[in-house]
Write a structure and sequence with these properties.
The protein is 44% helix and 15% strand. With 419 residues, the chain is an alpha/beta fold. The protein has 2 domains: 211 residues, Rossmann fold (3-Layer(aba) Sandwich), CATH 3.40.50; 184 residues, Rossmann fold (3-Layer(aba) Sandwich), CATH 3.40.50.
Amino acid sequence: MTAARPHILIINQHGENRGDESAMRAMIRSLYKHLPTASFTVIAQLRDRQLKIPFKNVEVELRNMLMGADELLRLAFYAVLKFVRLDLDFILGREGKSIVRAYRESQIVISAPGGPYFGDIYWHHEALHWLFVWLGHLHKKKMMLYSPSAGPFHIGILKPIRRYLFKFFAVLCVREKISKKHLNELLGNRQVHVTADSAFQESIVPDDRINFCRSRNLSEVEPFLVAVSAIDYKFPGDSDPEIKREAYRKTLIAALIRIAANRPAYFILLPQLYGRHHSDLSYLETIAKSLPDHTGFEIIKSGVDSDGQRAIIGMCDFCVASRYHPQIFALSSQVPGICFYYEHKALGIMNMFGLERFAFDIRRCDPDSVIPAIDEILTNPASVKKAIEQVLPDVQQRAGISTDLVIATMGTECNRGEK
């Protein structure tokens, strides 16, 4: 019988990224709303072992996927022995024992929102993610893929392995239709639910822009606030990545200059990566140096968490993003803007809102294609906001289906709270 106080294990959580943090927080807070007695364990990918992710009023234990080589080998060996029905805990290290205990205590194992951590883009990391899925299968736990992106799955030698491993999930749920297409191509007619990014489950109250401007001694004429979140994309696999990097950088700068051409603009640059091993700060500093002299800017401190970043973006007039989740933050607050996508996940969400004309492939972007889109938004921002407003309630409702599917998969024996 399912325990009166359910324990939920979340695996494959990507760390040191404010976007993935926001998706995880929205997922846990949504589940906690339905299951107010639940406790959670999150197994996250954290290179900075000193990092902690605080959760108010929710019991969350944080474990690290990136353990030492000795610990990881012991955990993998334990999995192999358990596969042949030998349950030998003594071979595990300290971290491995904590992780195995979390599997045993859990009523369900959820593979976290994020990705595409299953697919060709990050195939070299995929084995580690599948190890944690396999451990759930070995412990005979119900498992669900909780609305990440997925695919593509074109590497022929991996297809039969992936088909076998995806069978471990009782429920497959992705956050946009492109990922569903990838999974259907791999798995055939198996049911794949299309919901929306987990972060859409929450609405964060925007910061007060008047107080924001006063605290920075900005002009009495209220400036045009522009949120910017930019990735220093390396163009892996490209024959001449430096040419592509420079074309992308020039297009990004041209976009910002165009936005500031006829208005007092103030640029707010938000780093998504944080911690001792990952950072967007140096690239954002490079972008800031190229802004027009008549504009103001600031780079938000890396310690501002995902809720804080969402509140900042929510008060802005325009958003320029080449990272995925800042575009989610903008859409959830009906802030218009453009995005540069390097993976299908961002294009998928812009398609969901009917705004794909404002999404640009980072590998083929140029000012001549981007500037007309900016002009369209600046000329008639109310029209774009209205388009977002009309679709947003449906997207928010779809995002909540992911949580409903968790509850249904766990079974009715769990004590469910009021919505």
